[in-house]
Amino acid sequence: MNNNKIIRYINSLIFNQQQKLRNGWWILLFIALVAATRPLYSFIKPELITAGLSDTMLEALSLVLITLVTWICIALRKEGFKDVGLAINGQWFYQLALGCLIGFGQIVLIVIILMLFGAVAFNVSSNISLSGLLSAAYVMLCAVILEELLFRGFIFQRLVNGTSFWFAQLLFALVFAYGHWDNPDMTGVVKWFASLDLALAAMVFGLAYYRTQSLALPIGLHFGWNYFQGHLFGFGVSGHQLSGVLEPSFTDFPVWFTGGSFGPEASMLSVLVDLGLLLILWRWQGIAHNQNKIIKHEQASNNQVPLNEAN
Fold it and tell me: Which residues cross the membrane (predicted)?
């Protein structure tokens, strides 16, 4: 193999046919930058605590660093935040609100079924306040946006472009489920139902992004499910116990039906609800598809010659 062939071979490993950096290298760059933020986080956080910021306020620190990494990568690609699904406008907030509403509806449906079977009863908590709920919303929103940037953001999108959507979906569903593998109460049958549901949830969020080309809907779905599950109904959220407006108490139904202390994510009901939403999203052609149809229709209309001119 002569030098020119070697150079062309190395070039093909790094760049695609359009002489743009291959998606795999962008993924490695993102991972390397995320790794570089870990010592930065360890340095910055104690300094901010010394300056008087509380742990609650510092929940946004990890999110800020991941956003910075995302910005560096898209800036190098000469793109903007809209290219990773963060076009912050009226449509974006509409999708965010819609996602929250759907996530709320999912958990309400599960609660209704549990109550109809007599599997759970609720008492109103005496240790809840509006300030506490708002603080919890802030913490939850930071965590959710962080997870969506990591699991449906730049890396996910590069993998979709470099391989296929469903390959990326399946891989990130496994990674998302594995990321919760050591959560509290992840034992026995709970572990299997919870892992299955977490993988399905990841596929729901991924399909929500794919159908809208925006992170607003998956962020809304994720936040609506987690927040109302934990801070309204008082269930565990992926094994983490949170303070809610209500306090649930379970009867002697099996844990695979109720989810137990892990939360509804470990229940058969949650698996069925997520499967239903996944099917709906699969059949829905999406906002991006509808917008493309409108554009094509407008272009066709503009290209038509009026009859009086044709004559």
Answer: 25-44, 56-76, 96-122, 128-151, 163-181, 193-212, 224-246, 266-284
